[in-house]
Specification:
single chain; Jelly Rolls; eight-stranded antiparallel beta sheet; seven-stranded antiparallel beta sheet
């Protein structure tokens, strides 16, 4: 509760620049999204591509991860955020090892960043930090995450305060200082998760 109060107070007093939700509709089907860099932490072959999908909240295209790698990620180019809010709609489709949709922030490089993940296979929301390519768990919270359904994941990060909400309900609210300083933001999955993403948006504080 303390972290949430700090985050809300800062959001109400600071000036913020907000983006329009990115729907990936300007990108070419079958190709990675324009203005993003995609890859993975660890081993494997991720496959990030923009695809047509009639179920997309914004329509007609989505960002899809259909490969398999340790931790696939896709970050927005030329956007460095210290404090702010990120949000995305995601739809887990299938996965034997994992069925995840997630976001990254304060992303320095492939081995160092924060991760918020919602997992349909385990039914939880979790917070991690990646340190030199090694994933470190901060906390898990039980949460309903259905396959083949669009969900909304939202993260507020102000200083050391971190708040994570799924479908409008806050599940994680705490202080953590493992990853400091500004970094990029983006989306994330795990292992063989086939996941769709749409309407990625961010707000960032104006110095």
């Amino acid at each position: 509760m303390k972290a949430m109060m700090i985050a809300v107070a800062l959001l109400s007093t600071n000036a913020y620049a907000a983006s329009m939700p990115e729907a990936f509709d300007a990108s070419t089907v079958g190709q990675p999204p324009l203005g993003w860099t995609c890859g993975a932490t660890g081993k494997g072959t991720p496959h990030w591509s923009v695809e047509a999908d009639k179920s997309a909240p914004s329509g007609p295209k989505v960002l899809k991860q259909s490969g398999s790698a340790t931790y696939p990620w896709c970050v927005k180019n030329e956007l460095v955020v210290l404090d702010g809010v990120i949000e995305v709609k995601f739809k887990p489709i299938v996965g034997k090892e994992d069925q995840a949709g997630g976001m990254v922030w304060r992303w320095k490089n492939s081995g160092n960043y924060y991760v918020a993940r919602a997992n349909a296979l385990e039914g939880n929301v979790s917070l991690y930090y990646m340190k030199n390519g090694s994933r470190q768990t901060i906390v898990y919270k039980d949460a309903p995450v259905a396959l083949h359904r669009w969900h909304t994941l939202r993260v507020i990060f102000i200083g050391t305060a971190i708040q994570i909400a799924l479908d409008g309900k806050t599940y994680i609210d705490l202080q953590d200082s493992h990853i400091s300083g500004a970094g990029q933001v983006g989306v994330w999955t795990k292992a063989d998760s086939m996941t769709l993403f749409d309407e990625f948006s961010y707000s960032q504080s104006i110095p």
